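To: structure desk
From: M.T.
Subject: fold request, one chain
Message: Could you run this one when you get a chance? Sequence is below, nothing fancy, just the single chain.
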Amino acid sequence: MQMKASNGKDFLVSFSALLILTFTFLFVFYGSILRDPNSHFFKDSGDGLKNYFTYAYYIDHNISNSNFEGMNYPYGEHFLYTDCNPVIAISLKKLSILFPGIKEHSVGILNMLMLLSLVMTSIILFLIFHKLKINYLLSVLGALAIMMLSPQLFRFGGHYALSYSFFIPLTIYLLLRFEFKNQSYLLALLLTLSNLFFLFIHAYLGIILISFLLLYLILKMILERLEWKQNVKAYLQLLFSIAFPILFFLLFLSLSDTHIGRTSNAGNLIGHSANFFTLLFPFKIHPFYPFFAGLFPNTDVPWEDLSYIGLVNDLVLVFLFYFLVKTFIVSGFKGLKRTFLANKFLSICFLSSIILLLFAMDFPFAFGFDYLLDLDSIEIIKNFRANGRFAWVFYFVFGILAVFIINKLQEYLSMRNKKMLATICIISYSLLLMADGFIYNKHVANVITKSPNLFNTEQLDPAYKEALSKIEKGKYQAIIPLPFFESGSGNFIRTTNKTIFRQTIICSYHSGVPIMGAHLTRISIPESKKLIQVFSNGFYEKEIADDIKDDRPFLIIKSNEKISKNEREYLEKSQLIYKNKDFSFYEIQKAILFENTSFEEWSKFNSIESDLIRRKGFLVNDSSSYFFYDDFETKRNEISYRGKGALSGSISRSSVLTTVNGNDLDTNSRYIASIWVYNCGENFGQDLLNFRIELSMRSGKKENWKTPFISPNTSQIINDCWSLVELPFSIKEKNADYDLRIVRKEDSDIQFTVDDLLIYKDGMKIYRIDEGGSFLFMNNHKINKIP
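Reply: Done. Structure tokens follow.
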């Protein structure tokens, strides 16, 4: 792959022109950020706010080097799972010892790094084109155009660790330099360090690069099968650059990660994937989107899976496909070898990117082979929740290939003394690609310049400044948000509401008080369970109490959003210390938060027992209202909540738990259907609660019926290995049957176990003394008798 030396002056002029154009582009679209990078949040909600928080809190407040302490209190979380730009965060944290001002400008530094990554992208693409002997004008304009449309642009809106668009071009450039072989050891080392660096920025980035390099190595060995002996050194060097980073990363993770019980099924693999539309069609903000949507009305192009190559590159792709097919038909493989495939480097990169593109499109799993995901040998693939990101490799490789093809066209025209036409082709191609980039950058720039830096005290709303002054330094061990949020394990979940999340994040960062709650990824299942159990009824033992050694009180932040009945009970035990129109501060003592109320509940029962009415083997306060109870004692089971019976089955088949006749119910009343669901098992009960229980109407006027449903994984009431699921409902149609059932999930092999089904009118009190007086049954709760 020898190339003639280029004119040094032309290179410097072209490179200078590229820098001028790139920085002009940045100032046109992102000038307000460049002038004051520390004054902006690219996004002030959801993952964007969380990722600023994990990054800035780590730099400013964290004590541990590897365990992030700002969320999931008292356990924290390994910093590689927090999207905090780990290698950048830890570097700035160490530098802040010498330069304390870094802490105040950490957000600005991150913002600048994201924008400067665009500069790096255009520079590296230009260097790739230089090595490929691309026309200088095309090298400059092509590099700028590909950078402007890079799919990482949309990551500026929240996924900051995924926003570094130069990571794939850098690998391609190093690989291209490696093929010269005169510096193979140095280039192999640089590839190794690059892979390692990006693994510690975000694991997805590292895995994408390593997957690409592995495919490149395999295809290279296949194409060079007659030359293995003379190329064995290069193969080993590439293999080292692939194997060492992943082994080092996994070793570091295993030695430093103290959290157990992470899910091995991170989400729906097929839920976020690429397809021909995400590759070839523009996003909905594009003026041509309605045209494509009209042609394919049932097609959506979600931003998460976007790898749009540009309208002009759509045409290049169609031309390339037609040209290759025609060449193959006419001249066979020998003819193909005379096309761009004569450039072995580009051909291997292109084939590698196509294979990754197929994976990004869920091939073969989305085409009837999803059962393969259950095989132990490839079960690790389930950890990819957004495999559409692997299409990014195709975006850059095809972008480079398209420029290579346009360059061949201009060479062809120039050889025939049509230099003006050749120049027009270059400029027209580049401007058409840039036009898509202008549209996208205008949208992104508008989105990321709307919010102030909420971690900058000067930009805080006065209400927050006043509230923060009420938080005494060092007084509280953690912040408890209400409504409570805990998400990330995928097995025990309390939804993160936007308002309370924002309020909690702001107060936690400025006060340095960690959050008891989490909005993270793949957190420990047992830790998540213990945190949600905090708001179980007071008569249940809270496992987390033994893990909290600190005796300081907790600070509760209560938003104006609706909270659960259990959360309300704990709030009533707290002391109000501050209130404004948006949120309130309460203080609750550790002893009160974990106080066992079993004795209190028994005392209440004893005080009213003589006034209760005996009915169906229970003592109730209302003899006329409907209630139904099934203890499943006829279904013997090794696992049970009470007695010796429980119902077990597969989620792959719908199971009707009971049928309620509407004539037995009152249309003006509210009812509660409650049932205990087993939550222990392999890997701390992974996926056992991930199904749905619903009340469906089987007859009657269904158009008036909105099916109520609930997922057991959202329950706050946890007693050891069981979660109490409570489904409130009311009916409008008496002349109907209502099935309480477990909804079928065809793609699931989950085995559920449920026990003690109770349906009753809201407000009823239903009691029974069980097991010789050891337990008090109260509305399906099981309350120990305290001696």
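Reply (cont.): Residues 419-448 form the longest helix (30 residues). Let me know if you need anything else for the meeting.
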